[in-house]
Design goal:
Elements (H helix, E strand, L loop, with lengths): L2 E5 L5 E6 L2 H4 L5 H15 L58 H17 L3 E4 L9 H11 L4 E5 L4 H6 L6 E5 L5 H6 L2 E5 H12 L1
Parallel strand pairs: 1-3, 3-6, 4-5, 4-6
Antiparallel strand pairs: 1-2
């Protein structure tokens, strides 16, 4: 069972916490992680690219010239795909790119991503992160103290002071424990959990 130190924002070690082995020490199955990341990215695609077929292009109702006797190739409409301004053959049309994977696979991939961060020593646990005012400078001082640059913060509840203090810093993201996902975990170099969010994640993934 992995044991992780718990710190305060001054980087003083306060205690240790035993993490659920099934959640934070799970097998790192790369194919599951890949599948879930693909699903997340596909669901974000808008799928609004659109072209017009020859029947949808305006104009072209009259035959450009007579069938025979002109010396030119026969043509029935100026909206042929062969003509400039004509319809598009096999062009993109609005579509839904999203697909689903099973709940079991999503949970296994999330456990694998969290376990990977534990293995890499990129998972930190803070007792709390008190902010009595919106102050980006104070928030940045804490990051520098822990030597963190690209970080995903997982909160147990909404904290407007903390969230707004981090808003203008590049590669910092704040999410609630119920919003933890594989893509965001992998996209950031480190992950910081507030101590109350640890049990919330364990309950959600062990259910």
């Amino acid at each position: 069972m992995p044991v992780i130190s718990v710190y305060d924002i001054e980087k003083n070690k306060i205690s240790e916490v035993e993490l659920d082995e099934a959640v934070f020490s799970a097998p790192v199955k790369e194919h599951l992680i890949h599948e879930v990341v693909r699903m997340q990215l596909a669901s974000r695609r808008r799928g609004t690219a659109s072209t017009k077929r020859r029947s949808e292009v305006r104009g072209g109702g009259r035959k450009p010239w007579r069938q025979k006797g002109t010396g030119r190739a026969r043509a029935g409409t100026i909206r042929s795909p062969l003509w400039r301004g004509g319809g598009i053959v096999f062009g993109p049309h609005p579509r839904d790119y999203s697909f689903k994977v099973t709940k079991k696979v999503r949970k296994a991939a999330l456990k694998a991503a969290l376990s990977l961060k534990v293995q890499q020593d990129k998972l930190w646990i803070l007792r709390d992160f008190p902010m009595d005012e919106i102050k980006t400078k104070k928030f940045k001082e804490v990051l520098d103290r822990f030597d963190l640059t690209s970080v995903l913060f997982v909160l147990d509840k909404s904290d407007p002071m903390l969230e707004k203090s981090s808003r203008n810093i590049k590669d910092i993201k704040m999410i609630r424990s119920e919003g933890v996902n594989v893509y965001d975990i992998l996209r950031h170099e480190s992950i910081v959990l507030l101590e109350p969010s640890v049990k919330m994640i364990e309950r959600a993934l062990s259910a």
